[in-house]
Design goal:
The chain is α+β, with helices and mostly antiparallel strands and about 525 residues long. It has a domain of about 325 residues: Cytochrome p450. The strands form 3 sheets. The protein has a 4-stranded mixed beta sheet with strand order 1-2-7-4, with helices on both faces. Strands 3-9-8 form a 3-stranded antiparallel beta sheet. A two-stranded antiparallel sheet has the order 5-6. Helix 8 packs parallel to helix 20 and helix 14 packs parallel to helix 20. The protein is globular and about 70 Å long. It is an enzyme of class 1 (oxidoreductase). Belongs to the cytochrome P450 family. It is a single-pass membrane protein.
């Protein structure tokens, strides 16, 4: 009996049926889910295996690098510094897919010079910047093109006028003598613990209000009155900082719903507008704005029925208030904190001040000893110490630009049209390739030449006062105010940290304030001290 062999046609048919059945089973929802899960975990394992101890954030599917940024937002500036140290001075941040959150982050002075100076026209502030900083309106910080040029010309004429410079110097000395020194003397007598950053913010708030409006709100009084405008500005700066790192649609929705940081920003906006309106009205009523920046806007103020004129004045004064109050106070707070950790630097400042005291024929018992702006202008070490503090803790720790056309940076990175670039001024100071192996140290001597003169550093390297055509117009004013305050405190008082356990660290905000302030005890200098 013979057994017939299966035909080739039957074998092919069976194989085809088996293959189709297998493919059908592979494309069930259960299998696809299992396959996707397996792929995801294998990819996750691959990323973690290759990441090891790297500081470079993981580029996750869909979410990009945003999770790592949000986890480090509380220490944002130090986190960026770690990224630059490991990956170089320029880094491309990839945000969530389709949300337009990709941007370059750099601390390379060559890139700064290229964008802020050499190719300035290609990198305006842009519409996105002005939308994020909408609370500043159409003021000089948000403006571009002809609007910016017009505002800058006017501000330059005002701040550079000899009469205004004289007004700044005289008022700064008077405020220190009649406001700051008496307050610190009372605190010293009581042995009270005080937040020095708060004291300095109150001082610079009074000084800035007087320079802008011709009004002294008296925030530095011994009662430490509540300052709604100052609190509002702090809340606003924190909310604006957050806007940089969340999807635009997200914060827009929060703004519409008035929730979270956007709720605080809306409330802050109302407080700031009310304060500006009251200050302008008070200045007009008392006719005491002569010498202030408001003087040049008197004609516009008279046209209050014109909403455009009023908005222009509102936006201008809010921008001036931000520039004067926050940045100067932040710079001074970090300056005194650094001096407390570097007594040798304080001794050298005292030595310089001692020479002026000798010229003034001050007695050992003289208190307080005060200085005119002209006397302080020639002090090399004091100026160097202030520059060094501003280098390590720049009041504005980041800058933000957008490109109009495609460009190639000196670092070799290709920037597309509409590309976004974030500059870390804070990190630049901590790059050995920029400032040397001792970059993290407070060393005022780096600003002094072998001949004992002040050493000039290019602004693309020392970006505390911006760079290029947008260089800060108030730089000289800021130094006049800071020197008046620094000299008075260093010469007449000792500032001691109240507790070793109090952590002083940067606050995540547009302005580099101390997160929890700095609690100190103030003591009068001993008579034997120089």
């Amino acid at each position: 009996m013979s057994i017939s062999k299966p035909s080739r046609t039957m074998a092919s048919s069976s194989f085809l049926e088996l293959s189709l059945g297998l493919l059908h089973s592979l494309y069930t929802p259960e299998f696809l889910l299992a396959y996707a899960s397996c792929f995801f975990f294998l990819y996750l394992y691959y990323l973690l295996l290759n990441k090891k101890s790297s500081k470079i954030p993981t580029n996750w599917p869909l979410l990009g690098m945003l999770p790592n940024l949000l986890l480090n937002l509380h220490r944002f500036h130090d986190w960026l510094t770690e990224l630059f140290r490991e990956g170089g001075c320029t880094f491309y941040f990839r945000g969530p897919w389709f949300l337009g959150m990709n941007f370059f982050i750099t601390c390379d002075p060559a890139n700064v010079n290229h964008i802020f100076t050499a190719n300035f026209a290609n990198y305006p502030k842009g519409g996105e910047f002005s939308e994020i900083f909408d609370i500043l309106g159409d003021g000089i910080f948000n403006a571009d093109d002809e609007s910016w040029r017009s505002q800058r010309r006017k501000a330059q004429l005002l701040t550079g006028h000899p009469q205004f410079r004289s007004f700044v110097a005289k008022y700064s000395r008077d405020k220190v003598e009649n406001g700051l020194v008496p307050l610190l003397s009372r605190l010293a007598e009581r042995g009270a613990v005080v937040d020095l950053q708060d004291v300095l913010l109150r001082l610079t708030f009074d000084m800035t209000c007087n320079l802008v409006f011709g009004v002294d709100p008296g925030c530095l009084s011994p009662e430490f009155p509540a300052v709604p405008f100052a609190r509002a500005m702090d809340d606003a700066m924190e909310a604006l900082f957050i806007r940089h790192f969340v999807p635009r649609g997200w914060w827009r929705l929060m703004k519409w719903l008035r929730i979270g940081t956007e709720k605080k920003l809306a409330a802050a906006w109302e407080v700031m507008d009310e304060f500006v309106a009251q200050s302008i009205a008070k200045s007009k009523e008392e006719k005491n704005y002569e010498g202030s920046l408001l003087t040049s806007y008197v004609n516009e103020i008279e046209q209050w029925n014109d909403q455009d004129s009023y908005k222009y004045i509102r936006d201008t004064t809010v921008n001036f208030m931000l520039a004067g109050r926050d940045t100067t106070a932040a710079g001074l707070a970090w300056f005194f904190w650094l001096l407390s950790k570097n007594p040798a630097a304080e001794s050298k400042i005292l030595e310089e001040l001692g020479r002026i005291k000798k010229a003034q024929h001050c007695r050992p018992t003289t208190f307080p000893v005060l200085f005119d702006a002209e006397e302080l202008a020639g002090l090399v070490y004091l100026h160097a110490a202030l520059c060094e503090a501003l280098r390590l803790y720049p009041p504005v720790p980041t800058e933000h630009k957008g490109s109009v056309r495609a460009d190639v940076l000196p670092s070799g990175d290709e920037v597309p049209p509409g590309g976004k670039i974030l500059f870390s001024v804070y990190s630049t100071a901590r790059m050995e390739g920029v400032w040397g192996e001792d970059c993290a140290e407070f060393r005022p001597e780096r600003w002094i030449s072998e001949q004992g003169k002040l050493r000039h550093e290019p602004s693309c390297k020392f970006l505390a006062f911006n760079c290029g055509p947008r260089t800060c117009l108030g730089k000289d004013i800021a130094f006049t105010q800071m020197k008046a305050v620094a000299a008075a405190i260093v010469c007449n008082f000792d500032v001691e940290a109240a507790a070793d356990g109090h952590a002083v660290q940067p606050r995540p905000s547009v302005i580099l304030h101390m997160k929890n302030g700095w609690m100190v005890r103030i003591k009068k200098k001993k008579k034997s001290d120089p």
